[in-house]
Amino acid sequence: MYEVQMKYLDKYDDCLPVMFTCENFDIYDFGYRFENIQMDNFILANLEVNKDDIALMKIK
What we know:
The protein has 60 residues and is mostly beta strands. The protein is built from no helices and five strands. A hairpin with a 2-residue loop joins strand 1 and strand 2 (13-27). Strands 4-3-2-1-5 form a five-stranded antiparallel beta sheet, with no helix packed on it.
């Protein structure tokens, strides 16, 4: 499991950045593709993000 922190602030909480956990990710030339994302109270199958949008990734 990986924890990802984005560079952008959460729309509903101006003090915290957008964060999510995921089971797997792939690295491409333009960015990352995350799979099985869990964020707050919902789940996404996959999400593609530019490299410049990621602030921190860590193994959880």
